[in-house]
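Table S7 (text form). Paired inputs.
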Amino acid sequence: MKARKFSKDGQFQSEVDLPSALFADNNVSQGAIYDAIKAENANLRLGNHSTKDRGEIRGGGKKPWSQKGTGRARQGSSRAPHWTGGGVVQGPKKRDYSSSLSRNVKRKAVVSILNKKASETKINILEDLVLEKYSTRTVNSILKNMGLTDKGNIALMVSGEDEKVKGSMRNIPFLKYINVKRVGCRELLYNNSLVITQTALNELVEHYKGVVKNES
C-alpha cells in the first residue's frame, strides 16, 4: 500500500510504501471495527435519564375524595400515573451503558481502520511538525499546501501531546488532534483524510506490528 508524503510545510515529496509490518492487503476486520465503534459509542452515553414513579413523588398520601358516596370513581392517591403530575409507569431510570472491549479486539480494530483508510488512499504522511509558537495560520497553510482544506474532516495524528500544535488547531473546526498513544477508533474512522507524522507512524508500527503478523 502507498501513501503520499509531504514536507513539514505541506509540500508534496513523493509516494511512499506504507510499512508492511502494519499495512497489508485484505487486513480489514469489519467485525472488529463494528465491535469497537459500538463500545465507544456506548461509553459516551451518560445514562442520566430518570423519571419518578408514584412512590417517589411528594404528596398524594390522602385520598382525593371519599371511597363512596361521591358518584366518582375510587381514587387512592393524586400521584397515581393517570393523574396529571402523577408518577410515570415503567419510565427510564439511571443506568450504566458502558461496554468493555478486549485489548486484542481494540488493536485489531485500529489496524483494520488504518488499512481501510490506506486502501481508500486517505492516509498522508507528514514530516514531524514543529511549531515555535501558536499559529493557526501556519497549520491551515500546511493543510492548504497539501490540498486537504476542501476534503472534509481531517485527523492529524502526532506523537504525544504537543501543546503548540494542539492550540494552533483549536480554531480549525474540521481538524481533529489525535495522540498516537491514545488512539480511538471513532476519531480514526470518522474523517475524510488522515495525516500521520513520521514519528507517529513509527510508533504505530512498533505498537501494532504483531496484529498484521497474526492476521496473515
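Next pair, protein 2 of 2.
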Amino acid sequence: MPRRSIDYSVPDGLQVIDIKTGKPAEEASMPVICRNIRHYRIASGMEQKEFAEKIGVHKNAISSWETGRTRPDINLIPAICRELSITPYELLGINDDHAKTALPKRAEALLDGYLQLEEKYKTHVDTVVQSLLRIQEEENVPELDRLELYPLSLAAGPGENFYDITETTAVYLHNCIPRADALFPVNGSSMEPDFRSGDYVYVELIPDGSPLRYGEIGVFLVGNTYYIKQYEKDGLHSLNKAYSPMLFDADFTSVYLVGRVLGVVPPEDIATPEEEQLYLKYHPEEE
C-alpha cells in the first residue's frame, strides 16, 4: 500500500495538520477549545513543554489538544485558564457578559478547588451552597403589609356603591400607616398640591374609625360620584382654590362619608414585584 503523502503547506497563521486527511485542518473543523488553547499559548509566549509542566500534563497532551485529536479533561480548565490568563468563557469561545471581566481571585480559587473534588464531595458542596443561599434569601425577605386597593377614582367620575365592591387589588407596602384600612387612587386636580392625580391615599374606613372632624380630609360619596375633599361646617372644600366648594344647602344631594384620608402613599413604599414575589414565597397564606 503506497504511503499517504502529507501536504505540509499551510495557510498563513494555521499550522495544524488534520491527522485523518494529512492536509491543513480547516479552522471551522477544529474544536473551539483546541484552537483557543493553541492561540492563547502562542500569544503568551510559552512553548508546549513549558505549558505542559505548568498545568501538570505530558507535552504530548498539549500537542494532542492543539491538533484536535483529544480535548482536555474538564478538571484541567481552571489551571489552563490560570496559566493562559484567560476566563473559561474565552477558552470555550462563549460570548457572555462574564467574559468581559476575569473571575475574582477568590472565585477562581474556589472553582479550581471544586473541580478537583471527587463527585461525592462535590455533592456535599452543592448541598451546603444551596442551604446557604436559602438562609441568605430568608434573611432578605422584606417585612410588608397588605392593603386592598379599591377601584374608585376619587374626585372625578361616577362610581359604584362602595359596599357592593367585591373585586379589589392587593398592594404590598413598606412602612404602612397603622390605622389605614384601604387604598384609593386620586384622579383630578381639585386637591392639589397635597393630593395629585395618580396618587394613592391611605384611608381609614368609617364607621370603624372615629367621626371626621372639621378641617380633616375625607372620602365622600355625593350622588354616584366619589370625592376626596376637606370637610368643613358649610360643605366640602377643595384645596385647589380654582374649584368652588360643594356647600351644604337645600339643593345639595345626600352625602355619605366613606373614610378619613390619612395621607399619600410614597411611591417608594410600594413593594416592587420582586419584593412581593419573595414575600409571598414565605407567606403563601397572604396570597
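Residues 7 and 23 are 5 Å apart (CA to CA).
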